[in-house]
Amino acid sequence: MHLSDATWTDVRDADADLALLPVGSTEQHGPHAPLGTDAYHAETVAEAGADRHDETVALAPTIPVGVAEEHRRFDGTLWVSPDTFRSYVRDVVGSLAHHGMDRVIVVNGHGGNVPALGEVTATISRHDDAYAVPFTWFEAVGDRSSEMGHGGPLETALLRATHPELVREDRIDEARAGASDGWGDWVSSTNLAHDSAEFTENGVVGDPGTGDAELGDELLDRAAEALDRLLTAVADRDVSG
Amino acid sequence: MHLSDATWTDVRDADADLALLPVGSTEQHGPHAPLGTDAYHAETVAEAGADRHDETVALAPTIPVGVAEEHRRFDGTLWVSPDTFRSYVRDVVGSLAHHGMDRVIVVNGHGGNVPALGEVTATISRHDDAYAVPFTWFEAVGDRSSEMGHGGPLETALLRATHPELVREDRIDEARAGASDGWGDWVSSTNLAHDSAEFTENGVVGDPGTGDAELGDELLDRAAEALDRLLTAVADRDVSG
Amino acid sequence: MHLSDATWTDVRDADADLALLPVGSTEQHGPHAPLGTDAYHAETVAEAGADRHDETVALAPTIPVGVAEEHRRFDGTLWVSPDTFRSYVRDVVGSLAHHGMDRVIVVNGHGGNVPALGEVTATISRHDDAYAVPFTWFEAVGDRSSEMGHGGPLETALLRATHPELVREDRIDEARAGASDGWGDWVSSTNLAHDSAEFTENGVVGDPGTGDAELGDELLDRAAEALDRLLTAVADRDVSG
Amino acid sequence: MHLSDATWTDVRDADADLALLPVGSTEQHGPHAPLGTDAYHAETVAEAGADRHDETVALAPTIPVGVAEEHRRFDGTLWVSPDTFRSYVRDVVGSLAHHGMDRVIVVNGHGGNVPALGEVTATISRHDDAYAVPFTWFEAVGDRSSEMGHGGPLETALLRATHPELVREDRIDEARAGASDGWGDWVSSTNLAHDSAEFTENGVVGDPGTGDAELGDELLDRAAEALDRLLTAVADRDVSG
Amino acid sequence: MHLSDATWTDVRDADADLALLPVGSTEQHGPHAPLGTDAYHAETVAEAGADRHDETVALAPTIPVGVAEEHRRFDGTLWVSPDTFRSYVRDVVGSLAHHGMDRVIVVNGHGGNVPALGEVTATISRHDDAYAVPFTWFEAVGDRSSEMGHGGPLETALLRATHPELVREDRIDEARAGASDGWGDWVSSTNLAHDSAEFTENGVVGDPGTGDAELGDELLDRAAEALDRLLTAVADRDVSG
Amino acid sequence: MHLSDATWTDVRDADADLALLPVGSTEQHGPHAPLGTDAYHAETVAEAGADRHDETVALAPTIPVGVAEEHRRFDGTLWVSPDTFRSYVRDVVGSLAHHGMDRVIVVNGHGGNVPALGEVTATISRHDDAYAVPFTWFEAVGDRSSEMGHGGPLETALLRATHPELVREDRIDEARAGASDGWGDWVSSTNLAHDSAEFTENGVVGDPGTGDAELGDELLDRAAEALDRLLTAVADRDVSG
After folding, report:
1. Which PANTHER family does this chain map to (chains A, B, C, D, E, F) (predicted)?
2. CA E126 to the chain's CA centroid
């Protein structure tokens, strides 16, 4: 049930207690992939997970801008402060819970949101009348997770499977040429770089040429399956404590 | 230029200084219209205004949840606090301005957002490195503005023109039956009701049966034309003061 | 019962549950009217309304500085941020309610306070142990409301009736000469001006020469009568929801 | 120059850089003295100090509600949180400084405001474009300061001199009977009481019968003289550091 | 019971409801005394008071940085804002109370912390599930309190008794030479100086040569005895109100 | 240079621009290890790193309480909110930078602090006049990092090497018996547990019996060496961007 398309009477009649809240980011993904990549992916995975699940799941609208100031040196990157982001997520979850949808999985498409989501879902679960956990799709694709870069093989593959028209295939060589191999500039397990522009020339990490649409389909399948399992676990969990 | 679909290099090359930021709400619109009505309308009008305008305009992703606690008694209504909403809008506008898109029109689809948008655009324009103004589409459709209700003739007409599949035509009679004639419960020019459920039985204000798709097309045309004019005025304004 | 002049034992013995909280502004009102105009008017109207009402009404001291940054380019204009203003009003209402005066009308003399008062009275009524609504005197004088400017006919008339010594009659011609006809600089129903100095040369909107003391008396009578009716409605309202 | 009664053109022409901001409290002062005692006294002293001073001094309107939750168990006591109070004072001083009145003495009538005023004037002076210091009248009356109670000899005397109609002389015996000798409930230099009701039966500390109007005149004279000296010192101080 | 050295099972078994929370400052104390003087003293006094008390007292770890911006012109002085300091103390006390240690004395070694501690302990006691009061050691040493300066006789004496290796005896003459006689720059009972560097050349107030280790022992004894008495009073107090 | 033991003149003369700020936690570490484990370890590692480094490094006092609400069900665990923790760290770093020590490594002993430190060091580096990075000692001990639990082999080993008297060796069997094998309760790469008590009976994760003092010495050596390298990298980094 997409909340945006349902009426309030539909929501009343569905009487769901499970909800998914997709959160993305609008930020650089190299010269070949759109700024909205993370928001598209969060929404795609959330839809697929809800579809696969047996019980009714409310699907909230996607929060499009997240914690992404690290990409500020690349044009078009949008961000809100971590405080603002946490408040926005907390308030939305609070209004879902107000209507009884008080078990909420925040389906996330952006690595930079992870710490803030860990914090805010803990705060909600401890102090508000709701239980919330985060789910970051690319952490839940099994052994594929290790290939995650930024605008790299996994994200580009999933775009090729779901939004092929948004991948600039004619810029893949350029994207590869300016990419870095890994995220960050590390000394003694500390990342010295607070901006991605300190370690990647064009914003890309990893090789965007290596992930085809078939891989994208596989990733979506893995992520949806993982989300389905998580929905079951969240539905069944004793959160009375 | 939809920022979500553009790459950062596209944004860099476009070199726009005008941006539109659509803001909606996810809230009850009666038994016949979807919760996402205001977000859909904000996005539709913003797109139409950008299309009509001669110069390149950056179109930011739509902020889907706004100031709507007044509808909390109707299921599925989502809201954030006015503080959170202002922070979210201010931060997003700040990141647009960081890239030079520092003349921003917040295209609004929800009456409940109006006071918060007036405040935050003033704050931004006075204290940040950007100039921002709000534009609420149904205030800019000329003499039609007076017919605005809630889930009433104007909003339903625009849905019929742009998202007809989302209007439950078979519930229009029901919607009309539970509607109130006007917004609020007034004594001495003061609205005594802080919740919409205090004056409308099913959330509707006005008659949703009276606005057809043709009216919707007319409204969109009027709003787009008004927005185009506003874009020109914003582009030309001396904001150095 | 003026709280400032009552003792705590008087308040205890009066056992009122209705209170009026006047809020003004200290801001430019042209070359002919004092900075304190809005605070004087809020207090005057509140007193008159309380006098007319049958039941005991507690009259809190007037909050003298409000949301008025828009007049910052005119000397002597004082303001607090909207956040600070809302906090101040909310805390004062909270302390009134602590003593059982938990139905509060915020009697307002300044247009710039209106959005913040709408927000904070809703927040109080939904989340605190009190019910509050705003009452802006010049919105409650019937067909006269449409003549409201800034330092214009209505405000000057009320001053002439209540504080004639504060009107500089010898500067009325000057005031008229530098006044604008209307508030703001509008395109497509959007006000492009965030500062009043962008559209009025000397801060005045409307003709201050046209409102005499007789009109002032009439305005006060209308406002007091409207406030009396509102007090009755607030006293009778079911706010248990 | 009372800002409330001046026009913006008067303020412009006066070109003052010194301002006084009176801050009071609306709180219990026993069965014999009004809730507004501290606000009246702050305003009275500020006026007297400004009158005595040679140069033009802007006199801002009095902030009527301060930090007074400690008196919450006595009816009619109003308060704002210390955070709200600091914000209100800081914002008002900021707007005074915006117009060049950037040397501000906060003239205080309430002991409970002292810590918050010390903090906020330091914050303003270190971080904003203004210099501010607090002045608490009853700390500046020489050897008389030691007689200060609450609703006791000093405050009642000053009322008798300036607002005799507000002193309930027929309740002085009652006031004396329920008074405590000193403020607080002390062990090892720590006050164990967070509420005044823990140590005074009717809110009074000290004997309100002992201060006559003559003493009140003397106190006002001493305070005004001290404030005049402080104005000179503030005007002359090098605050460039 | 030092919480830092106890295990959680020790705390569980001790079942204390009294706790001491030492708070210091890391700030200049002249050329002869260490920056950590106030933190050392708070901890020393807290330990001595807990040792002397009959019942089990939980001793929390010392908060090392407080409200000390006034010393910012002297190198190495650390500070947090008063807001941050209050939040830190409030949160720590809240977690103590969560485990039943809900009667907390904040043992303070720094004059600059006093107003913030008065405020936050009142807030905690009125609004949280705990009772808290501050105890500032040098206010509780009887007639010796009047000799308190800054890096002066009392503080240096206590260092000589407890941390003699941290006193640079060879710089005492220098310390004395650059010291001021008193704290602040006073006119009309108002301190015009917001920074200590405005009235003391090297940060010292008072003569650090006059307090020997014997005096230090006496001070510690007095403070510990006072704290022991306060612990008893806090344990016995009815805080149900 | 320990700031707590240095005088302000020492700091002035040392003229360092590098500083270490140790941050710990006071939280359960099983029945065998003290609540202060993380604070002790942060301080120990910071001292060892500073000792090993060639240039002068300022060592700030240890912040003893961090982000640890997840352990709230175990007695004696203290915590502050993530917001409070970030503010405290940011303010302290700001005061270090005020004196020229504007390259700061936050030396961390607690996993729960990691997300908040990542956020606040980025905020500082992007928006304040300082450069800061976090260093979490157990992430910087090479292949040993994978053995990290909670009160497990690594932390207990380091205690045995540095504070053997604080390890309750007679409770090691009990500690092992109630320990869990891993941190959290995972489904689909999401940890469903917001409290450690949901997955460990006595708070321990890992076997505290397997790490001896020799391992502790090795860990300290590795961590100190890593920190020394990081100090060099931070000193040399171009942070002008």
Report:
1. 2-AMINO-5-FORMYLAMINO-6-RIBOSYLAMINOPYRIMIDIN-4(3H)-ONE 5'-MONOPHOSPHATE DEFORMYLASE, 3-DEHYDRO-SCYLLO-INOSOSE HYDROLASE
2. 23
Q: Is C206 left (phi over 0), alpha (psi -120 to 50) or beta?
A: left
| Type of residue at F143 | D
- Min Cα distance B222 → chain C (Å) is 10
Chains E, F: CB contacts within 8 A come to: 188
- Residue window 100-159, chain F: list those with CB within 8 Å of chain E: none
ipTM for the predicted complex? 0.98
Topology annotation, domain D8-236: Rossmann fold (3.40.50)
* Cα F205 to Cα F217: distance, rounded to the nearest angstrom: 21
| Tens of pLDDT, residue by residue, chain B (241 residues) | 999 999 999 999 999 999 999 999 999 999 999 999 999 999 999 999 999 999 999 999 999 999 999 999 999 999 999 999 999 999 999 999 999 999 999 999 999 999 999 999 999 999 999 999 999 999 999 999 988 999 999 999 999 999 999 999 999 999 999 999 999 999 999 999 999 999 999 999 999 999 999 999 999 999 999 999 999 999 999 998 6
Distance separating alpha carbons of residues C239 and C131, to the nearest angstrom:
7
Query: What residues pair up with F104 in beta bridges, in sequence order?
Result: F19, F132
C209 DSSP 8-state letter: T
Q: What's the burial of E195, exposed, middle or buried (CB within 10 Å: 0-12/13-18/19+)?
A: middle
**Residue A136 CA to chain centroid, in angstroms?**
5
Q: Positive or negative, the Cα torsion across E191, E197, E200, E203?
A: positive
HEC states along chain A? CECCCCCHHHHHHHCCCEEEEEECCCCCECCCECCCHHHHHHHHHHHHHHHHCCCCCEECCCECCCCCHHHCCCCCCCCCCHHHHHHHHHHHHHHHHHCCCCEEEEEECCHHHHHHHHHHHHHHHHHCCCEEEEEEHHHCCHHHHHHCCECCHHHHHHHHHHCHHHCCHHHHHHHHHCCECCCCCEECCEECCCCHHHCCCCCCECCCCCCCHHHHHHHHHHHHHHHHHHHHHHHHCCCCC
Chain B nearest CA to A72, separation (Å): 8
Nearest to A125 by CA among A156, A93, A100, A148: A93
Q: Judging by beta carbons within 10 Å of its beta carbon (0-12, 13-18, 19+), is residue C200 exposed, middle or buried?
A: buried
Interface membership of A68 toward F (CB under 8 Å): no
User: What are the structural domain ranges in chain B?
Assistant: 8-236
Dihedral pair phi/psi, residue A49, rounded to 5°:
-65, -40
H or E, element range at B8: helix B8-14
Which of these, E128, E148, E140, E126, lies nearest to E204 by C-alpha position?
Answer: E148
**Dist. CA A40–CA D233, nearest whole Å:** 64
Q: Structure tokens of E206?
A: 């008072």
Tokens of E191: 């301190």
pTM of this structure = 0.98
Nearest Cα to Cα of residue E107 among E64, E159, E43, E162? E43
Tell me which chain B residues have a C-beta less than 8 angstroms from the C-beta of C82. 119
Of E18, E212, E219, which Cα lies nearest the Cα of E109? E219
Q: Which residues of B195-222 are buried (b: 16+ CB within 10 A; e: fewer)?
A: bbbbbbebbbbbbbbebebebbebbbeb
Please name every residue paired with E180 in a beta bridge, in sequence order, or none if there are none.
E205
DSSP state of D151: S
Long-range contacts of A138-147 (CB under 8 A, 24+ apart): A138/A111, A138/A219, A138/A223, A139/F189, A140/A222, A140/A223, A140/A226, A140/A227, A140/A230, A140/F188, A140/F189, A140/F190, A141/A219, A141/A222, A141/A223, A141/A226, A142/A222, A144/A215, A144/A218, A144/A219, A144/A222, A145/F189, A147/A206, A147/A211
Do chain D and chain E touch with ≥3 beta carbon pairs under 8 Å? yes
DSSP code, position E192: -
Provide the pairing of β-strand F103-108 with F131-136.
parallel
